[in-house]
Amino acid sequence: HSLSTSAESPTSNMQSVLLLLSFLLLSHGGASGASDVVVDGNGDEVKAGQLYYVWPPLIGNDGLFLGSQKESCPLYVVSAIASTHNPDPLAFFPENSSVHSQDPVREGDTLFIKFSIPTACPQSSVWNYDVETSFVGTGGTTAPASGPNYSRFAIFKSEVPHPPHNTTYYFKSCPCGVGVESPTCRMGCLTSLGLNNFNGHFVLSGSGNNGNDWVFVKAQKEGAMGSKIRPVASRAKA
After folding, report:
1. Number of CB atoms found within 10 A of residue 203's CB
2. N or C: where does the chain have the smaller number of CB atoms within 10 Å of the terminal CB?
3. How many CA atoms does the CB half-sphere of 148 hold within 13 Å?
4. How far apart are the C-alpha atoms of 107 and 94, rounded to whole Å?
5. How far apart are CA 95 and CA 74, in angstroms?
6. What is the pTM of this model?
7. Smallest Cα–Cα separation from 175: which of 137, 149, 155?
8. pLDDT tens digits for 34-87?
């Protein structure tokens, strides 16, 4: 009986090793299932902290820039049609990345969005979703929040074709962290954001239904910031 047990041990050990290897492979495969990386108009990875312009895929429309209602604060994220405005440069800061990292931005993971231009308003240039008006404005915060933080947004790939662009994206307001180790709340993302015609301005809004999809274009280091940028108030007159 003891000889029989000794003869079966190598087979039993081999089965145990194979089971362990299978478990490790399955575990590794599950851990690597991260969301897809967001790409710009050239197909390059969108990086945290890098400046980008946000353009619509349709020719004739303007990109996103900061504008005001009646030249007063706070400022809003706006666009225009067939105007002379250029989009303002902005940067994405994924919530799961360190402050100075250049990690790739991933689809569906929460992030903070900040315009990189000087303004005369006291509010920060970080995006913030106003739940009362559904408008996206400024005055957001990147500080840790124990509950919903309406400065959190996420980028999702559009399924609508916009040739010649291979990939376009849309924004959602996501008050609770997604893609982070310890989410502080469980509220799902809100509606996708589009452009809402309000008093002659096209404001990025949760109730908008135009211009949902966007293309990201990397800003050149020269001219992305500086004295050539006109005051926001003069650019946002109705």
Report:
1. 24
2. N
3. 13
4. 10
5. 24
6. 0.77
7. 149
8. 689 999 999 999 999 999 999 999 876 789 999 887 778 999 999 876 666 789
